[in-house]
């Protein structure tokens, strides 16, 4: 009978150990893994929140820069606009031609990636051409005159009328 008691106690002890191991494996382990997974998620959320805070600081800094340099940014956009906008160039050029008493006769444009080439012809008094060229050079819009041809329309080129062909480029922001 002692042997039965010992076996019974061993069986109970083994069953208890088996129960504890089973509970640990099937109940406690999933709870621990779930808790650990949630802990990792919380850490990731905290990291994401930190990144968002840094992005907000960067955005605030950019908004302050934009506010502080708003006029300068507008000026840069006028100097080198987003689009080629040859119509505004022609308008500005027409105003300069009127101011300098020369006629804008012809305009041609060819579109490139970051600029637009132009070929324009103006007619007027030879004496007015240098001031027109100076005004074009001083335009707010970034303009490059690459070729200039002056042809006399009358017999007296100094006091008479001339035809001027200008070839150059107006610039726009490059597409990235």
Which descriptor suits the 3D outline? rod-shaped
Mean pLDDT figure: 83
Give the helix level as a range of percent: 55-70%
Number of domains: 2
Give, in spatial order, the strands making up the sheet with the most strands: 1-2-4-3
Number of strands: 4
- Taking pLDDT < 50 over at least 5 consecutive residues as the criterion, the unreliable ranges are none
CATH architecture of the largest domain: 2-Layer Sandwich
Distance between the termini: 92 Å
Percentage of β-strand residues: 15-25%
The number of helical segments is 4
Structural class: alpha+beta
Integer-rounded radius of gyration: 41 Å
Instruction: Give the helices and strands as they follow along the chain.
Output: HHHEEHEE
Q: What's the helix and strand layout?
A:
Blueprint (H helix, E strand, L loop, with lengths): L1 H67 L1 H10 L6 H14 L2 E10 L3 E11 L3 H9 L5 E10 L8 E11 L5
Antiparallel strand pairs: 1-2, 2-4, 3-4
Quick take:
With 176 residues, the protein is of the alpha+beta class.
Which short descriptors sum up this protein?
176 residues, alpha+beta, Alpha-Beta Plaits, 2 domains, 4 helices
Would you write up a description of this structure?
With 176 residues, this protein is an alpha+beta fold. The protein has 2 domains: 1-68; 83-171, 2-Layer Sandwich (Alpha-Beta Plaits). Helices cover 57% and strands 24% of the residues. The chain is built from 4 helices and 4 strands, in the order H-H-H-E-E-H-E-E. It has helices at residues 2-68, 70-79, 86-99, 129-137, and strands at residues 102-111, 115-125, 143-152, 161-171. The chain has a 4-stranded antiparallel β-sheet, with helices on one face. The protein is rod-shaped.
